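Before relying on records like the one below, remember that each one covers exactly one chain. Contacts with other chains, cofactors or solvent are not represented anywhere in the record.
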Amino acid sequence: MKLSKNLSLAEVVRSETAKRLDIDNSPTKEHIENLKTIAEKVFQPIRDHFSCPIHVSSGYRGEALNRAIRGAKTSLHMTGQALDIDMDFTSVSNTDIFNYIKDNLEFDTLIWEFSNEDGTPKWVHVSYREGKNRNQILEAYKEPVNNLTKYKMYEPRKEKKETPKRDKGRTTTSKVRSDK
């Protein structure tokens, strides 16, 4: 079943954890309607903009699967209203996806999920609730002491400016030639 032009139901319910633990991850009709909405309002505009496959690393998660992976008890993945996107090993970065959603789409919550060593998000979480979107932007991080996941308001990254390279140790002088 197609949820949008480029997203199938199979892609958003697929889960290695569900397979391994023999968990039925079948959505209800209401969940499928929610998945169609997020596919049309969020996924498809991203796909059309970047003109390349967009990888959904986590879509619909039934309650049993959500418990098994220790997801949030109020996760919108369980209602079919959230997607996690991970563009590793593609020409489009997770930062590109995050910024496109932030700057161009309506959403409920957009989360910069942790940070890789290079400062990019490990993946991007986006939720969409028809008529109830808050356009909330957060950043997930691990608390260093007890390793709990915490959230803070997202602050845009400052673009690194190229600093001019200086030739250390050389002094240059310019001679002005006089024909007197």
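The helical segments are 9-13, 16-21, 29-50, 63-68, 94-104.
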